[in-house]
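Reminder: ligand-aware prediction takes two inputs, not one.
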Amino acid sequence: MARSLLSLALALPAVRAMNNGLARTPQMGWNTWNHFGCGINEDTILSAAQAVVSNNLTALGYEYILVDDCWQADARDASTGAPVADPSKFPNGIKDLADKVHDMGLKFGIYSSAGTSTCGGRFGSLGFEEIDAQTYASWGVDYLKYDNCYNEGRAGTPLISYERYNNMSRALNATGRPILYSMCNWGEDGPWNFAVDIANSWRISGDIYDNYDRYDSRCPCTDMLDCKLSGFHCAMTRIIDFAAPLLQKAGPGKWNDLDMLEIGNGGMTFDEYVTHFSMWALAKSPLILGNDVTSMDTDTLSIITNDAIIAVNQDPNGSPASQMWIHAVDGGGQLELWSGSLVNNQFVWAVMNTSPSNQTVNVSLLDIFTDQGAAFGSGTFTMYDLWQKDADGAWGAKVADVSGSMSVDVVTHGVRVFKAVPVSSSRRAAGEL
Ligand SMILES: *[C@@H]1O[C@H](CO)[C@@H](O)[C@H](O)[C@H]1NC(C)=O
Ligand SMILES: *[C@@H]1O[C@H](CO)[C@@H](O)[C@H](O)[C@H]1NC(C)=O
Ligand SMILES: *[C@@H]1O[C@H](CO)[C@@H](O)[C@H](O)[C@H]1NC(C)=O
Ligand SMILES: *[C@@H]1O[C@H](CO)[C@@H](O)[C@H](O)[C@H]1NC(C)=O
Ligand SMILES: *[C@@H]1O[C@H](CO)[C@@H](O)[C@H](O)[C@H]1NC(C)=O
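Here is what comes back for the chain with 2-acetamido-2-deoxy-beta-D-glucopyranose:
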């Protein structure tokens, strides 16, 4: 057994990813932008960090406290060119803030743009990569979200985008401090192809909008593989559509970022937010909360603390799920089957219902296990429902031992997520044991 695992490991190609050792599983944390926008100050960040700790979110993996745009002063330091924080919002400076966040057992992140200005009109880092990276490192920054506004047209081919984003990647490396590099170029020029060695994650689309499926012409793409203008106001399920063909590109240290979470911000129903959290987890997207964590209702808290779903996202295999089929529903919308593999020969699968009505669907195990083959899919599996609690109150109640097919009820705009564990007798029959 040990011998065959070793030869398997030797047969695998060298894993390519950014060489800072970070984000071996998708990063988790909280960011200011989706709820607070530019309305931030030192207290916004410290209160959120305190709430992450007091709600026990750290134990679940939420680790990074991220300051997004609008932390900057009106201008850089006139003599050195170094970045400076807005003294009215951050009277004690960023280093003091990072120290306080570190003292709570959390990590600290900041934001800039690979352009002359940030999206909020503050100074950007284009041409200032080295001094900015050095300054962030001296402040104790652990994470950089790096946007794409005002890029002076240095985009349009993967090579130009690569060079612009690689300049910051190299500057971060040169600091000697491991700083997670979260690229936010909205999928432009295909970062899932050009950025796997230079960034820990890359956004795949325009900004998320806190809505389930509203069409918005400001998010004009239908397909990120052929997209000229990523835009923004992208409804949650549109981002899932964009992600579907790209997920194979991700893995440990290099993730597709479906954008920050909107759970708790009020634009979607409970079932829609359950879909949002589940599908981001299956896609192995970073899970970055974007709500006001200092005031969460019980529905919000129950979704973001589902440790069975988080375990899917944080599975050490780092293998994103795939979309196995789409079935159109009469009256609009569709059913989608997704499945993926986890460590220890376990699997996760989900059925998503974007239609306006409750649906029941008969799912064939051969479809769930397409990638493992018909002999494997013909076996028997113990199914656990990751949104049902067991008798001890733990997420992931056992449903049944299933072979052949399983009938699944999915409410409108909802999702069902199951873990599948092969029953050993059928693994023996398949010659596996
Ligand atoms: C910088 O890159 C080198 C290899 O290119 C790597 O060994 C090192 O760990 C990196 N350092 C940081 C801080 O990311
Ligand atoms: C956090 O954990 C502590 C200790 O286990 C517990 O007393 C407290 O109720 C928890 N708080 C929340 C909000 O779950
Ligand atoms: C990357 O940095 C180099 C050296 O500073 C600079 O000449 C080049 O223009 C930069 N590339 C892009 C695309 O910004
Ligand atoms: C859909 O299912 C939910 C949950 O079982 C139920 O509350 C709701 O009434 C159903 N809606 C319709 C239109 O049947
Ligand atoms: C479900 O599908 C399987 C094959 O995929 C079929 O054998 C079975 O009869 C179906 N069950 C129902 C209730 O339609």
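The chain has two domains: 12-313, 322-429. The mean pLDDT is 95. We will return to this case in the review session.
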